[in-house]
Amino acid sequence: MHHNARGTEIDPVSDAEDQPVTDAPSPLRGGIATGVGSWPGTDAREAATTILGELPDLPHLVELPGRGVGADMIGRMSALLVDMRFDTTTRGYRLAPRPGAVSRRARDLLRGDLDALEEAWETTGSAGSGRPIKVQAAGPLTLAAQVELPSGHLAITDPGALRDLSESLAEGVANHVAEVRRRLGADIVLQLDEPSLTAVLDGSLRGVSLLDSVPAIPEPEALAILDAMIASQSAPVLVHSCAEPPALAFLRGSAAAAIGFDVATIGTRDLDSIGELLDSGKQLALGLTPTTAPATPPTWRDIAEPGVRLIDRLGFSRPTLATRILVTPACGLAPTPLAWSRKALTLTTEVARAYAEDPDSLTFEPA
Length: 367
What we know:
Residues 1-42 are annotated as: Disordered. It comes from Nocardia tenerifensis. This is Cobalamin-independent methionine synthase catalytic subunit. The chain has 367 residues and is α/β, with parallel strands linked by helices. The protein has 11 helices and 11 strands. The protein has one domain (2-65, 106-360): TIM Barrel, CATH 3.20.20. It has a 6-stranded parallel beta sheet with strand order 5-7-8-9-10-11. Strands 3-4-6 form a 3-stranded mixed beta sheet. It has a two-stranded antiparallel sheet with strand order 1-2. The two termini are 24 Å apart.
């Protein structure tokens, strides 16, 4: 038995011996490292080669928001939506009545990114290797929370627009996953980015003006939207949120196979929810590696320690680190200097290897 943060006994479902044994490892499994998605710079080929080199177990299709309109998390979705597209406002993006420069640019950038990834996939010998790849998309709630209607209101304030946008996104992302699978011959993991989720649920989302209030979306309604998106996909889904705090209790009830968050955003209040996420059978993608270089260069042990202490405090056995925990940077690395971005991925991979190979041997000074 293990105990949650309140001391209640809970049946352990997380020990290594309780996990099903399969011939082929799941592409979404513990003891591996991956990135969150974004990367500094504007060179898709260089970025793809770097990501494939630094993340042996679960590399990802890189996002380069430094290229501007159509390359960021929201604008990129204009390349994927079915029968919907964006143009820009002074505040961001809005739904447009017809295709225009924004949607064309988003499609061109994404096509170039896929070409660069496919080329690097071949040159690194990944083709036919069984190596999986992760792709990212804005989640339906965050997308609707950040895109305006032609009227100027956020899409999330209009139930019909929210439904239509979510359905278009689900179909477009499913098509995208199928294309990447076909081009690379690889198993796919889909990450849905939901940084606005906490604000959507607690009613703190700001409208486009001071007079434009955005009421909270009731949790059952929000969960139905997110789960409909997940159910429409042919790949296992990781829902990631860099929000502070992340909506962990809400996400526990979702159909996602894994939940990712920045460990620096959690507190004692979140411990029960994290334990319940593990008890529910989900994987956790722990954002452990800082996105800015600390004043004192950290070792992999420094990065590993908070994850180990978290699992120990929750009362799970150490093999949980190998079977249920993925390791990531705290959030996307686009704002980060390239040198630290590379170092961050190296550290992330070293931590994941330590978790996978001998988690019981990891010891630290008393806190």
